User: What shape does this take?
Amino acid sequence: MALDELKIGGMGASRRRVEDNRFIRGKGRYVDDIVLPGMLHMEILRSPVAHARIKSIDTSAAWEVPGVRLVITGDTMASRNLAWMPTLSYDTQAVMATDKVRFQGQEVAAVIADDPYIAKDACSKIVVEYEQLPPIVNPFQAQSPDAPLIRDDKETQTSNKIFDWEIGDKAATDRAFEEADVVSKLELHYPRSHPSPLETCGSIADYDRATGKLTVYMTTQAPHIIRAAVAMVAELPEQMIRIVSPDLGGGFGNKVPVYPGYVISILASILTERPVKWIEDRSGNLISTGFGRDVYLQGEMALRKDGKILGVRMHTISDHGAFYADAQPTKFKIGLMHSAFAAYDIPAAHLTSEGWYTNKAPGGVAYRCSFRVTEAMFFQERMIHAAANDLGMDQAEFRKVNLVKDDMFPYRTAFGFLTDSGQYGKCLDVALEAIGYSTFKQEQEEARKRGKLLGLGISTMTEPLGAGNSREYDIIGIKMFDSAELRVHMTGKAILRTGAKTQGQGHETTWAQIVAHELGIPADDIVVEEGDTDTAPFGMGTYASRSTPVAGAAVAMVSRKIRAKARKIAAHLLEVSEEDIEWELGRFYVRGNNERGVTIQDCALAAYSNVPDGMEPGLENNAYYDPPNLTWPFAAYLCKVEIDPQTGVWDVLNFVAVDDCGVRINPMIVEGQIMGGLTEAYAMASMQYITFDEEGNCIGSNFMDYLLPTSWETPGFELHEVVTPCPHHPIGAKGVGECATVGGPAAFVNAVMNALEHTGVRNVDMPLMPNRVYEALQTGQDVSGAPPVKGE
Amino acid sequence: MYPSRFDYDAPSSIGEAVAILDRSGGEAKVMAGGQSLIPMLKLRFASPERIVDINNIPGLDYHRLDADGTLRIGALCRHEDLEFSETLAESHPTLYAAAAVVADPIVRTRGTFVGSVCHADPQGDWAATMIALDGRIVAVGPNGRREIPMKDFVLGPFTNALAYNEIAVEAVIPPAKGKARGGYLKLERRIGDFATASVAVALDMDGDVVRRAGCALAGVGGKTIDANAAISVLNGKPLTPDNIEAAADAVAAAADPRTDHRGSAAYKRQIVKTFVSRILTSVARTEQKAA
Assistant: This one.
């Protein structure tokens, strides 16, 4: 008899997360938990100023601190040709400053000592003489003709501009605007934010001169890419490099790039011939590692009176900091910004983008989104909101008119993406019903009598998750597929390894569920291992919600290969031909005689003890999966807020999330992902931003200035699901990890804007702190840009 | 956390602690709950040569009411002790309201009332309530005990009136002259954030007439703002809407806010006004219901 899939922890089981057994006991093994014999400790000295020429560095006092083993400056790095390194966007980035510093927090020197206290003490004894230069803190200053040239290290660079880029059909879009009855315009800023995983970045480099092998324990979401990068940068043979990413305390995109600290620790280990540990402190993480967003939008929509969108124009101005170090597919200069409006049936669209250098930290990473999709969807939903208002149309009705209908798939978007499935209208209807949309106006009236302002905001979006396919998606030439390797042991237990890298997503739990679904081996009998480049198959790592769409598909495919071999073994054991074998979960049987069968475990034992003549023994295999397309989950997020007009404080009364991420492997984990993502969305909408004063000082260098919401502030979320299986994914799953972070912010902001509608205010830029909402209420004017940081 | 090197003592009596401070000649720092000191050590904003941890000194973790209604809070009374105090809710509404919003629940389990007052953060909650309630601090030094009225205790941001060899051992809040009423309201961007603005109001009521009104503000000036004089317009008057508005205006005028990323000066002043008005209106409503 077939097994009960839920009982063996297969698809659809809300199986408890196996990794939590160690996490909740404090038994996780993070980089900082690893102690190697003879290990030294490294501390980085960072620039206190944003833009300055380095006149001199005096390290003599640091060398004299007892316990100091090595002091490294830019000159040390340069002598090994390591002062600069390539970025993931074909730019270069300083590993350690040699000529000048280009942002506050840039690496200037490092001390390697017997313990971290000594290293920190000695760092404070290094004297650096700076000749200050005018800092550039936003892309508008960067454009000024008398702006200083930030990247004077690059021979061909004559201005602070990084790129101009465009996509879409300009002529068709221009025609749409000529035909429009109404043109709706909106300017927005998506402020700079930071992924701020609880565990900061760090590494332990261990170079063994006797064997020539370099082992690096590292906080990375993409260990295999790091191995390739180290091979290129450090000019070491790839087989002599082992990258181990142990337990990660969160990533959210922060742990994709290659950071100077990693490279410096590697050189330090080579020079000292001892293991060198570097653990970044919180401020180091917030001021120097990959940020998210920092993009300005000028958006326009061409509208017909009946509500039909005829065309969209977007112009983005992005601030990349001192080095263009974005982690993104090579073809696209501003990530997947052109995924904007993918959920809407729009005939024409045109996007132009310009990117600028500033004296700010580099590395526009995907902070819990698939390559700037967060900005794309926020801009989209804020523009949709403004357009509906400009037409005098109901927000839900306007979306229904323009959303792609179920029978239009596969649908080619105006920017060229191919969406393949969804029930957008149904998702929106479920959400409208859940939040009580039909009685909201009445509720709003009643609240006015109590002196409160109610608002309801809608955000509906589909987003491209799960890069690649490899035809279109690569990072510095490395194609974006992924992999899985499955070894079934003699007793029917198994170990699975993939090229992805869990950082809280629960791969150890869900991957086993996919194997259980495909093979009927109980999930508890399967161990999942990731992150060690010496043992795991090559993969592109975990970000952009790509694990389930790509590595997860590889897990299903490798399981099917195992099943195919097991079928031959079953035929041999049952003494029938393979064509007469039927499969049901966990066992093969002879067609027409269900009693006569063998389990997958019987086949595993036979694979090592009784294989048919001519068959290789063993039961293991691997699969490399190159997806035919991205996956396109859909979400409808509805938020109801109440504003206290005397203070500008707003509270979330109700938040409804309807997610269609296809087939759910572990519903509990999916719900956790959505809750976490909505919390981050709420954070960005309400309190979170990193800004800079006019001198380039980073405001947001600690958790008193850069705010993470606690359980106290975070509203409750009501979750619903709609399931439209992905047509090309082997188990019908779509990415989900980032949907809520991507689609969530606009729901909060649109709700507050809806409550302010009677004042004529069109926009308050995030974060919607009470003082900004109050100002908008009082003045009836938009509140734009980053909040001020200095007194008047 | 990698602070600068420091020596550490954990004496078991106040006398011993004072002797250590005296010997250290101003290079030592007293640690009670450590909830402000430890972050400052971590950031190396503070690098004392010696930490004198008073947590091993017995008998300091109390808060109690004397027979005459005087409230005494020992140096190791944690915020949480006040938050969950059974006596305080009735006797000291201003303190009780503040106790629930000090920092966050984790800090409240460890941080102390007296330590927070000594820290003299312009955005600190307890110093504001102490000023509004006309409290005083009991200090012990080599020459014995002395009492320092709150109005003389906070000298400026992060500066108090204690000598380097003195320890604050107790906070004293005098009994109300009449029924104690009042409240504490704070606007913060997130729990545990420094206040954008907060308001402590303490009233001694005689029937529906205010006998004495006390008020202090946090987050809206270079130090805790003593608004006792401003709110004294209420003294001898009932809490009518007009009187409430006059008091709220007077207190708002006493604020000295600066524009920063938490809001403009005008906004913060508006919050002060709104909060004073809300606390007073709430007291007036409660009194009406009681009557």
In short: Residues 295-467+629-779 of chain A form a domain with the Aldehyde Oxidoreductase; domain 4 fold (CATH 3.30.365.10). Chain A has 19 helices and 35 strands. The first helix of chain A runs from residue 20 to 23. The interface with chain B takes residues 116-117, 120-121, 281, 283, 646-649, 687, 691, 699, 702, 704, 707-710, 712-713, 769-771, 774-775, 787-792 of chain A (CB under 8 Å).
